Each structure stands twice: as structure tokens, then as C-alpha cells.
Fold:
Amino acid sequence: MTIIHWLPRLTAMVLGGGLFFISAQAISTQPTTLTPLFVEDFDQKDNWEPLDFPLQSHSAYDITPEGYLRASSDNSVSAIVLAKRFEPAVTPMLSWRWNVDNTFTKGNAEEKSGDDFPLRVSVCFKFDPKKVNANERRWFKMQKLVWGDYPPYRVLHYVYASRDDLPSDILPCPYSERARIIVKRSGQGDLQQWHEERVDIMEDFRKAFGEEPPKEAVISIMADSDNTNESSTAYVDWIQVSPN
Structure:
């Protein structure tokens, strides 16, 4: 399987586990070709690469007999990354169908101690040196020198949040200024039901960061409960990227 070479394999990055922390064993295989449109139906996981966080218990990702991706966490955190790059400017529409069994009693998207979600569908944007100032450019170069690759430039987390009284649908990530949390579902009312979501990545990036996004991005899925020390189960039926 071809792996995204610029997204390091072992990382607790702005995916949510904390600040960028990348292992020295970064992915270094050849990059994929850009994908104008794709649908992931989760008949299997061959197109997904595990992203494990050092010194953490790993969440579990498996395919159910019905053909759903099941994401389970138990005081754990890890992610899977889709091995297909795409251009948000060309295919800005991201859609998916998900079902969440439960949220977290101590979940709170505004605090580090509660920064857990039964499911995140995240868009990770490739580092673009033209989009940073001199100080930031030096920081990114230092990360590459130390760890062998650049971390993502920005990340959008589309989440199912535990609390339904959050002050906004777009929140700063408690762990990193380079990530934003976009609340698509929250609270108890929508649990244990299938829901289809559809978002415009370009529009959300502009709202979240006040700038144009980099050219390339990849998608990741994460179930995490390492801060709340709770457990969860959630399902994804399919994910699609399309031009409209």
C-alpha cells in the first residue's frame, strides 16, 4: 500500500493528542497520486494506515460484518489515515455517514482534560512554506530535521462532541493553535442513529483560519478517550470526497 509520505506514522500531533510529537520513523515511501474523487465504503481497510501515538494505548479499528468501520476507544488514542491525497480546491465537498453509541461524561471540547471524542473525521493539510512567516518556517524546518518530515500545516476536526452547550460550532483546539474543532453533532439526542454529514472544506477552512488552505490534504479518522479515561464505540458507513 502507498502511504502519504508527509504525514508521519507515529505522532501525537494536532490530531488531538497534544502538540506535534513525531517519531523518528516517519513514512518515507513514494507519495500517492492526487485523487479527484473517491468513495471509501469500508469493505476493507487496505487503503488506511494506522497512526499510533507513542506511550499510549491504541484505539481499535475494524470492519463489521455489515461493512462498517467500527472505531472503539477505551482510555486510548490512535487514528487511521487514508492513503489518498486530494486537492480541496478541486474536490471541496466532504461527506460521510456515521453512528455514535455514546459520548463521554467528562468530555469537554474547550479543555485539555475533556478533549476526547468518540469520533473525529479530520482533514490534514500539507505544509506549504509559502504560507508561513520566517519564524514559523524555521520551526517547520526544525521538525523536519529532527523527525524526518514536516508535520501538517493545519487540521480541521469534524467531531461528535459530548456537550451540547458549546459556545460555537467552530472551536480552537485546546492542544494546538494549528487545529480547529468543528462540531457536527453533540449531546445525547442523536446517539445510536445514522446521520449523513456534508461539509465544504474550503469554506470551513476559511472560517476557521481566515486564510486560503494549502493545495493538498488527506483524511484521518480518530476515536480517543485518553483524557477522560472513558470508552466509546462509533461506526462509519462511508466517506466521500467530490467536486460538488
Notes: The chain has two helices and 13 strands. The mean pLDDT is 85.
